[in-house]
Design a protein that fits this description.
The structure holds 2 protein chains of 2 kinds.
Chain A (H helix, E strand, L loop, with lengths): L1 H4 L4 E3 L1 E12 L5 E2 L6 E2 L4 E5 L4 E5 L1 H5 L17 E2 L4 E7 L4 E6 L4 E7 L2 E6 L4 E4 L4 E7 L3 E12 L2 E3 L2 E8 L7 E2 L11 E4 L3 E2 L1 H9 L4 E7 L1 H8 L5 E7 L6 H8 L5 E5 L7 E5 L6 H4 L13 E4 L8 E6 L5 E2 L5 E2 L1 E6 L3 E6 L3 E4 L1
Parallel strand pairs in A: 1-30, 16-18, 17-19, 18-20, 20-21
Antiparallel strand pairs in A: 2-14, 3-5, 4-13, 5-12, 6-11, 7-10, 8-9, 10-11, 13-14, 14-23, 15-21, 16-22, 22-23, 24-25, 24-30, 25-28, 26-27, 28-29
Chain B lengths: L9 E6 L3 E10 L2 E11 L9 H16 L23 E6 L5 E7 L5 H9 L4 E8 L13 E7 L2 E7 L10 H11 L4 E4 L9 H15 L8 E4 L6 H8 L5 E3 L13 H16 L5 H5 L7 E2 H16 L2 E7 L4 E7 L2 E7 L8 H8 L1 H6 L7 H13 L8 H22 L8 E6 L8 H12 L3 E7 L5 H6 L5 H12 L1 E8 L1 E2 L6 E9 L3 E8 L3 E4 L6 E8 L3 E2 L6 E7 L4 E5 L11 H14 L8
Parallel strand pairs in B: 1-4, 4-12, 5-6, 5-9, 9-10, 10-11, 13-16, 16-17, 18-26
Antiparallel strand pairs in B: 1-2, 2-3, 7-8, 13-14, 14-15, 17-18, 19-24, 20-21, 20-23, 22-26, 23-25
Helix pairs in contact in B: 4-5, 9-12, 12-13
Classes of the chains: A mainly beta, B alpha/beta.
């Protein structure tokens, strides 16, 4: 019966202890250097690509003043061969053999293709090393691409993130979920840490955080100005609520605050929602008691978060499902649910404005 | 008598980028009618990562609302229909959930072949991620003023490109362009150039470049190459490109100078979107057992609907679909039609991108609220973070309608439909679905599309009109029946002259004569919106006399016609075309607010 009443809803995961699996993949194919069963620390390298590289196609026949048909006979290097900076790739005698017209490699890499008049080289950038980020064990290897890691710990998903990924000690710098993090709270002790702010952060505090090389930032909301500023920085940042000043929901703040001092990571490139993960300090059988997160189910009593409208950000429970649609002040005629907020407060919310949380 | 081979009970699903809508169509008292529907989140991404999950949820809700059993206990669709009205005879689906194709265009001429291909791409779900034209640097890749330079060194002679002999080498523009193309990592490379029978040498040069880029990629990640250039070059292009890549050849997008034919390229790209995007939606395999017909793109389905209506009623029709992830405009007159799909315009995930492109000022121009730009931006950006959410309050509704205006008007401007004259204007998409504030929707369509002349305005309150269009592949009668009876709600007849007279001047003198309300004479001033009550189905005779300088596309500026009412009635939009807003922010806001009042949308709900 539950299925007939409840639509599919979006989810925000907030788990004190769960066993999760995450893919870690190289940007381009390379070499995986761990195997199934390997136990990993967060900063352990799991894979590297020697020539993550970038493609450099050049009109070689034109450079060499030859036709595409005759180009191959002047090639010194062939497809698949490695090249070093300024190494000769093609050479052709000119002026009755008194001079040679040569094309030299613009950098290190290898030749990937010679198609008619064009030569394509993959020029190596700095070798790329992929770290585990999630402390755990390898459960699957994707040859030349990456690994799947199983890890146990606390998980909190956000709604928006920027700045890729960061790893460090989680540091609570405000006392309440609706507090604003100010610059005076950030000092040299914040270096390398992931900072837990509340409803927001001041621009001065953000600048201080950058100066102190913090590893990440978790915040309820961000102003437009700071969002633009973050786009120019590489500070991994996770926003739990949205843009503007929004108190972090108390359960999320309390869960994160309870881990202040523990190692944590921010990953804003999960392929789904950005997340904070705090690996569990496994003692005894804790690893075995953690289970993969079960799917959230919409049902009476299920915890939900309101993600739009006047009650934005509030967390409650599904109390009742009306059997007919209702018309909102906006004029929209919608299906939804009565949500219990606190002891005696009920509010009707359209399904579209609800997310399951837990 | 019903055809026993023809499916009579049908489920239609529209898998959008944010919402999945499912509707049940069946025979009711001999006519095909919409029986029930439900909307749920599209579940193409984690944690479900299976579109069938959302569809099943929606079907289960239809079961709950109609009392009809549609799914087996293991949640498979019962098809064909069994005794006791269990299940349905057929299931059809349309989709716009996948991201658009990432397309790079490589051609000979920026102004000709590349421009033609770019226009062709606007007709389908495709984003241009890179363009490369051989002629854009003037001298076969080399910008004017630069020349190849031979630099002597110990090893012989090296090649460089320099501004003058002996000068410091500068990067070769050909290489910069080629690197940009390689970095764009497209799904598809469209190769164009040359008129049929024209020169081919330059085309082979860029084909070599394309081949080198394609061959450099892993086989599993190689883009498809679509050749839409000089047909004489096909065999050579195949020899150069076809060995390392999947090559598809379509008719030349520019077969003769000044003659553009985008249709074959559009069809080719649409096929790729179906094969490479829709078919790969997670969970699509589970649906293939439910339906014998392919899932078609939503834009194609809307085009079918608009063209059907244009043919059926002999009218010129403009159809606008404003979704969360894309905006589609289709026009049809007789057998000719146009279609534009903007996958970067919508009121969902790409709202932020749209604001960046359009500029916040354009949005603020139409916002009838006392709200500063930063606050409005925050609200819009949060909408893009939670793209499913619906406006709850009056102000939230106005914010969403403002964003919708800009998305629609941008698409209309690009398609050439802005300010055009049509017999019928249709609005569909999330914003029109289940929205009781019909006045606000009418104003949205009038402001954004600015259609002119005398036309009927209708909206799709169920949000399923495009999906009904897809029904035609299994039961044309059901498609037509559901569309005509339940697909659209007529808001009314609109009179919208083109004029640039001054505010307060009388643009139109209108005489309305109807059996129900008697005779009514109106003088309509420039800049105003008038609403004359005329119930759905109620007919009236109108006589409209346009003042000097006011154009109604009628002889001597006099229009006599028989019109039909609608949910709003007769709408006289004397704001002129184009609509000009006061330059002062306060006056502008007051004006827009006034129009909301005039059209009757300032109603208390809830």
């Amino acid at each position: 019966m539950a299925d007939t009443l409840f639509p599919a809803l979006a989810e925000t995961r907030m788990l004190p202890l769960a066993r999760i699996r995450r893919e870690r993949t190289l940007p381009t194919r390379g070499e995986v250097i761990v195997s199934v069963g390997s136990r990993l620390g967060a900063l352990d390298v799991v894979a590297r690509s020697h020539a993550a590289g970038h493609l450099r196609p050049v009109p070689l026949a034109r450079y060499m003043h030859v036709t595409e048909q005759t180009l191959p006979k002047y090639m010194v290097k062939q497809v698949g061969e490695e090249i070093q900076p300024r190494e000769i790739i093609a050479s052709k005698p000119e002026w009755f053999g008194t001079l040679r017209r040569v094309y030299r490699a613009p950098g290190a890499g290898y030749i990937v293709a010679l198609q008619g008049s064009w030569l394509a080289m993959n020029l190596a950038d700095a070798p790329f090393e992929l770290i585990a980020l999630y402390r755990g064990s390898v459960v699957s290897v994707m040859p030349r691409l990456g690994v799947v890691i199983e890890a146990t710990g606390a998980l909190v998903q956000g709604v928006w993130g920027i700045g890729r990924e960061g790893y460090g000690v989680l540091k609570k710098l405000v006392d309440a979920p609706d507090a604003i993090l100010t610059g005076d709270k950030i000092d040299v002790n914040a270096r390398g840490a992931i900072l837990l702010a509340g409803a927001g952060i001041t621009e001065e505090a953000l600048q201080r955080a950058v100066q102190e090389h913090v590893a990440g930032l978790i915040v309820g909301g961000l102003s437009l100005r700071l969002k633009e500023l973050l786009a120019t920085l590489t500070l991994p940042t996770l926003v739990t609520e949205g843009l503007g000043e929004h108190a972090m929901p108390a359960p999320i703040f309390e869960l994160l605050a309870a881990h202040s001092g523990d190692e944590a990571l921010i990953n804003t490139r999960t392929g789904a929602r950005p997340e904070v993960f705090i690996p569990a300090l496994l003692t005894g059988g804790a690893g075995e008691t953690a289970v993969p997160p079960s799917a959230l189910v919409a049902e009476i009593g299920a915890p939900v978060r309101i993600v739009a409208g006047p009650r934005f950000g509030e967390i409650g429970k599904i109390a009742e499902v009306p059997t007919m649609p209702r018309t909102l002040e906006s004029g929209m005629s919608v299906w939804g649910a009565e949500i219990e907020l606190g002891q005696s407060s009920h509010v009707f919310v359209p399904w579209e404005n609800l997310e399951l949380i837990g | 008598m019903a055809d026993p081979q023809k499916p009579e009970s049908l489920l239609v699903a529209d898998i959008g980028s944010v919402n999945t809508k499912v509707g049940l169509v069946d025979r009711v008292e001999g006519e095909y009618r919409f029986v029930g529907g439900a909307t749920t989140a599209t579940t193409a991404t984690p944690p479900s990562a299976d579109v069938a999950v959302g569809i099943r949820h929606a079907i289960a809700q239809i079961e709950a609302r109609t009392g009809r059993v549609l799914l087996t206990p293991d949640r498979q669709l019962i098809t064909p229909e069994r005794a006791g009205a269990q299940g349905v005879d057929a299931f059809v689906a349309i989709a716009s959930a996948p991201p658009p194709l990432r397309v790079a265009i490589v051609g000979l001429s920026r102004e000709v072949s590349v421009a033609s291909a770019t226009r062709a791409l606007r007709g389908t779900y495709a984003n241009v991620v890179a363009t490369l034209a051989l002629d854009e640097t003037g001298r076969r890749w080399l910008p004017l003023g630069l020349q190849e330079d031979v630099v002597a060194d110990k090893a012989g002679v090296s090649i460089a490109i320099s501004a003058r002999p002996g000068a410091q080498p500068v990067p070769d523009p050909a290489v910069i362009a080629a690197e940009t193309l390689a970095r764009a990592n497209p799904d598809v490379i469209v190769l164009v150039g040359g008129v049929d029978g024209g020169a081919t040498t330059a085309l082979y040069e860029i084909a070599n470049l394309v081949a080198s880029i394609v061959a450099s990629r892993d086989e599993s990640a190689r883009p498809v190459v679509v050749f839409a250039g000089n047909r004489e070059a096909r065999s050579q292009i195949a020899a150069r490109v076809g060995q390392g890549a999947e090559l598809r050849v379509v008719d030349n997008v520019e077969p003769a100078l000044g003659h553009e034919d985008p249709s074959a390229l559009q069809r080719g790209l649409e096929m790729l979107y179906c094969e490479r995007k829709i078919a790969w939606l997670p969970g699509m395999n589970a649906l293939t057992g439910w339906t014998a017909t392919p899932v078609i793109p939503s834009a194609r389905a809307l085009e079918n609907v608009v063209r059907y209506i244009a043919r059926r009623f002999g009218q010129s029709v403009l159809g606008a679909d404003l979704g969360a992830g894309s905006t589609t405009l289709v026009t049809a007159r007789g057998e000719s039609h146009t279609r534009i799909v903007r996958s970067d315009l919508g009121i969902g995930p790409n709202l932020e991108q749209m604001i960046m492109q359009a500029g916040i000022a354009q949005l603020m121009d139409w916002l009838p609220l006392e709200m500063d730009a930063d606050e409005a931006c925050l609200r819009w950006f949060n909408q893009s973070l939670h793209p499913r959410t619906l406006p709850v309050t009056h102000d939230e509704a106005r914010l969403m309608q403002t964003a919708a205006r800009v998305a629609l008007s941008t698409a209309a401007r690009e398609s050439g439909a802005l300010g055009g004259a049509f017999d019928l204007v249709l609005l569909t998409g999330g914003i029109a679905t289940n929205n009781a504030n019909l006045g606000a929707l009418a104003l949205l369509a009038l402001d954004a599309l600015q259609p002119s002349g005398v036309f009927t305005l209708a909206i799709d309150v169920l949000g399923l009109a495009p999906a009904f269009g897809a029904l035609a592949s299994v039961n044309a009668e059901a498609a037509a029946g559901a569309l005509e009876r339940d697909g659209f709600v007529t808001l009314g007849t609109v009179i919208a002259p083109i004029s640039s007279t001054r505010e307060g001047q009388v643009d139109l003198r209108v005489k309305v004569q109807s059996p129900g309300t008697g005779a009514m004479n109106l003088e309509v001033q420039h800049g105003s919106l008038e609403l004359v009550p005329l119930a759905p189905g109620q007919k009236a005779s109108i006589e409209v006399r346009a003042a000097s300088g006011v154009n109604l596309n009628t002889p001597r500026g006099i229009l006599k016609a028989e019109i039909e009412g609608g949910a709003l009635g007769l709408i006289i939009d004397a704001r002129g075309r184009p609509i000009v807003l006061p330059p002062e922010p306060e006056k502008r806001r007051t004006k827009v607010q006034q129009w909301y009042w005039d059209i009757g949308s300032e109603v208390t709900y809830g």
